[in-house]
Amino acid sequence: MSYDVTIEEMKDYLRVEVSGDRVPGQEADDGIEVWRHLADVCRETGHDKLLVILHLSGHIPTTASYKIASNPDKFGWEKRFKVAVVDLNQESRLENYLTGAIAVSQGYDARIFDNELTAEAWLSKS
C-alpha cells in the first residue's frame, strides 16, 4: 500500500489515520486501495462506522475524486458503512467534498470534515 494506514478499534467505530504523499497519476488507484482495505477491515471486525483522518500531502485531481466515489461497490464498499472523513490538507479538501457528495448521491453515508471533533460528533449520531 502506498500510504501508511493505522487503525484503532474504538467502542463504536474504527479510527483510521492515513498518511503519506500523493503521487501524481496514482491518486485514484492509491485511494481505492485504501478504501478496499478499510472495507475488508470493517467486515472482519464487524464495525460499520469509520472515522478517517487524512494526513496526505498534495493535490487530488477532480478526476481521481470522481473515480474513487463513482463505483465504491466495485472495491467492496457497502451502503451500511458510515464514514466521517477529516481531510487535514486544505489543498485537497474541496475535491474530497466532491468525493463525499458523489458518494452521498449514490446512497452512501459519508461526510467530509475539517476537524476531528465535529466528525466524531456526526459519526456518533446514529
Characterize the structure shown:
- The chain has helices at 27-45, 62-70, 90-105, 116-124; strands spanning 4-9, 14-21, 49-57, 82-87, 109-113.
- The model has no long low-confidence stretch (mean pLDDT 92).
- It is 42% helix and 27% strand.
- Helix 2 runs parallel beside helix 3.
- The radius of gyration is 13 Å and the shape is globular.
- It has a single domain (4-124), classed as Transcription Regulator spoIIAA (2-Layer Sandwich).
- The relative contact order is 0.17.
- It is α/β, with parallel strands linked by helices and 126 residues long.
- The chain has a five-stranded mixed β-sheet, with helices on both faces.
In total, the number of domains comes to: 1
The SSE order reads EEHEHEHEH
Tell the overall outline.
globular
Describe the largest sheet: 5 strands, mixed
What is the strand tally?
5
What is the CATH homologous superfamily assignment? STAS domain
CATH architecture: 2-Layer Sandwich
CATH fold-level topology: Transcription Regulator spoIIAA
- Terminal-residue CA separation: 32 Å
Q: Reading side by side through the largest sheet, how are the strands ordered?
A: 1-2-3-4-5
Summarize the structure.
42% of the residues lie in helices and 27% in strands. It is α/β, with parallel strands linked by helices and 126 residues long.
